[in-house]
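Run log, item B.
One chain of 344 residues. Sequence copied directly from the ordering sheet:
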Amino acid sequence: MTLLIRVSSCLVALILASCAAPARPEVVPTPASTQITAPQASPLQVGSILPDRTASDDRFIRALGGIGRLAFATNIEGSYQIGMLNLVNGELSWLTSPIEAGDVEPRWSPDGHSILFVSGRDPASGFVIYEMRADGSNQRPLIIVPGKVTINLGTTFSPDSSRIAFHTNRDGNMEIYVADRNGGNLRNLTNHPANDITPVWSADGGRIFFASDRQGNEYQIFSISPEGGEPSLVFAERGRMNYNLSLSPDGERLVFLSRPSFVGAPQIGIYNLRTQEFKIITNGFDFHNYPSWMGNDAIVFAHRTRETLPWTIRALDLRTGQSQVLLQTQTNASVVDPHWTPTR
């Protein structure tokens, strides 16, 4: 296939649960048995990159404080793979091999040296959490249940990189688990009949925020100690489902998907943990997904205007309301799951 990835004029899921969790549109990797080769980092071969990045593009990104690297997933070659966009020079590269099926959900470590991601490359194991270096090399499975097909998603590093949290259906329903950085010392934190999904650590590592439908069919936001105990309700909005959490670097605000419980496109909401203020920051007609932070004053997210169109990646300046496309294809392929790390 001729790749036609367009670096736009601004710069250039998968299953959330096997039961009642809200679905992540389109990102449903098909497990396929393949051989891992390393290192993986290689230029993303493109038929054309049009137009070249302009001075206004650089000004927008620099104004956001967003100079750094953006990991993402794209199905431009048929199945989802992990790519990376260097926001400093506009260079695109593959981090996982194009022949491997179903690599999604890239998540940077706090130091920017490694990336967690979910892969469906082993059909006997389901969706497994892997770790790789920032250049795509040294890919290795971290979270896997030998001899059992399981779904392991929503992985996130603790602030000191010593532990990870994720959600998994290994016990039947979705539960929040924590593990050491090497995948050892696994513990079920939530252990509840409801579905608990999309964890994210607090800035000091003392709490883990997550979404749960334990108060009914609507997903609301709770927190729990990484050592276990009784969860506390953080935020609930009747008539809305809130999930896919990401915490701002300063630890003050949660951004997440918020959609009407019965009908309506997923929008992006922000909840201020200090002031307890909640607001929807996107319109009610377009589709949004995978929000995450790009510094304390901007977010990146996947966007499309209609359900039948492919996803693009956009950045939004929360101070000015200005939004620009960062990545989109010139085919019917999507780019999703953006996750940013600053230049170090």
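Observations after the first pass:
- DSSP finds one helix and 26 strands in the chain.
- Residues 55-64 form the longest helix (10 residues).
Flagged for discussion on Thursday.
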